[in-house]
Description:
The protein is mainly alpha-helical.
Amino acid sequence: TAKLQLCARNMMDLxxxxxxxxxxxxxxxxxxxxFNNKVLRGLGLWDSRLHLVSMYEAVWEDKNNQxxxxxxxxxxxxxxxxxxxxxxxxxYSPKTYMLD
Length: 100
């Protein structure tokens, strides 16, 4: 519904505006990578794919944020990057279609 969509968008905007910059400023990049790797291992195969697509969507949503896009390209191996369109179509979109 539109109300749920607005609520989700507001939550994402708050995270992007306050949480992400705070983490970037306070947590060293190496520690962020280590945490991301632990999260991906803990999620398992299917959920880690969904997580990667979500990360990709968040980074590329702001087309002017070249720094985040470059960090994503460096941090994520090339094979998973190549698989993102397929995972988006097969795994992510069926679970998130109501947010579009």
